[in-house]
Amino acid sequence: MRRRLSVVLAVLLGGTACAAPPPEPLTVSIPVPQVAPTPPPRPLPLGVESVYGLFNNGEQADADALLRGVWRINRYRDAALPTPLTWREDPYRDQYWRFVFYSLRPLSNLLWAHYRVGAPRGDTRYRDELVEILRSYVRFDARPRVPDRKGIDYPHSIAFRAMALTNISVKLARSGDLPADLRGPLLAALGRAGRALADPVNYEGNHNHGFSEAAALLLLQRVFPQLEPDGSWGHLARARLAGFMTQIVDADGVEIEKSPFYHFYVLDFALALQNWGRRTGTALSPGFDDRTHGMLRYATDITWPDGSIPLFGSSVRLRPERSAELYAPLNHPELAYVLSSGAAGRPPAARAVLFRTSGQAVLRAVAPGRRDARNRTQLLVDVGPPRTTHSHPAALALLYYSAGRELLPDSGLYTYAKGSAADYFREARAHNTVVVDGRPNGPGPVRAGRTLTGPTWAYQSGAAAVYPGVLHRRAVLLLRQDLAVVVDRLTGAGVHDYAQHWHLFPGARVVSGPTLTTAYDQRDEPVLQIRQAIGSRVKDQFGEQRPMQGWHSAEYGKAVRNHAVSYSVTGRTATYVTLLASGRYASRPTSLRTRINGDAVRASVCADGVRLAATITAAPRETVAVTTAGTCDVD
């Protein structure tokens, strides 16, 4: 096998971005009929030239558009670009568009279409267009120029471009489709890319970009060793990967950006690189496999029971099952269970998990049967400070999933472009937490409290001092499936306006009052009660613009209106005791009574004829006691 590859290469050689597009205007999404999904196109085979499988996928429609000079990049209107290209294109004046374009990733459509559509029919149009674009690129790249770090010389683009060119050139050479006049210029272009990636100024090792920048350098060394005969690129790439996995993946296995989306982004790339190393006999960094495997615990615990991820921090809609081929060989039954919504594997055993370094806690109800796996109640609580710009500063925010859906979601990401929209989606008012004086969180400690479980319950607490002179303590107690109690106690040095915010799922119909908010689904069935033990001023906002409130964004640059309900009090202190009742409890009468004695809060819950009594004591040592106190009738 190695001999064959060396012959192919001799013929050739003659020997997901942090920045993003300007968002669309905030609009209401119009539901569209659901269409049965079509099978994905069959990818091209992997080889030594392929680290990431994405370079072997393509769409015929996108390839056909490129034949007309039209570049189709997700999130944007189609762009008709000049032929030949100037390599200074920037039709939307946007970094993410430039990243994708200058990475040459759209050319994968032409490569795929040549082998899957054109070549079997004797049609060379896709190959010919691909070759002409490559000729245009290498001519430009060979000219002396001042580096354009916002365009073609953006380090993340260089990394993906190196991987794209490696994949394209080796595949074309292997099939005899690479013209002789391109072999030398392509090799020279790849050498320039390698030298750029080796330059420390182009290594972004403090966030997710660094992974692909190191992986691309390792790929170049493995496939084109003559470009750096002393092997220094390989040694540098391995050292960077080792440092990256130590710096960017915390000791508790969580990617440092505190974003489920970016966690899976790095995990998928790490698994792909791991597979490539095994497939090609390429050694990776010592400890790389262990660090990658350590990321699976968080991937398992953070995934909602329906197989989606929370829109926590800088995250967009994602179903990790899209990468099932990467996870299948791992033999991780708990991850298999959550990705399949209970169809395979076994349910996660832990019902309260704290990732202490990242400051995220997951609470789960007692495991249901497989048929009810999608309905399992699960909460995510943020009990740690933000770590990077991809973390949202919303201390002690929580997300609530139950009865088969995310009932109290995070508002999402929406945009990286600076402005009022980006500010809103990042700030505390767009999250399920308590906001003081209508202000964003400031700097200050956010610390986890105790993580506890009982026979049927799970508990997490935390404290934050992110507003001057104000201490916020939050305790979250998952009593059982579909029932949770949230206790917020705030103490301030002066008088403040406190507002506890709850963001409902898009499409909900909401009825609010001083002590009870009920959310109804699209069939007008009650699915969630938010019951307050102490009445306060209630406000229900829906798609407000000035200031923004009541918006939800699951896709980048797109937002829909949703209900944001707040309960407000004014004073030196504020106490909220809140019952979340979902599933079968949402359609039945409930009651909540509270007795507060110093640091002890006793909540008496009546739901579906059963009374539960919970006592939470904060000091001197935090304790929780839950008892079933017989039957009851709601007054």
From TrEMBL:
Keyword Ubl conjugation: no
Subcellular location: Periplasm
Domain Heparin-sulfate lyase N-terminal: 65-317
Residues annotated as signal peptide: 1-19
Heparinase II/III-like C-terminal domain mapped to chain residues: 349-571
Domain of life: Bacteria
Protein source organism: Cryptosporangium minutisporangium
Entry annotated with the keyword Lyase: yes
InterPro entries: Chondroitin_lyas, Hepar_II_III_C, Hepar_II_III_N
Protein's recorded name: Heparin-sulfate lyase N-terminal domain-containing protein
Sorted UniProt keywords: Lyase, Periplasm, Signal
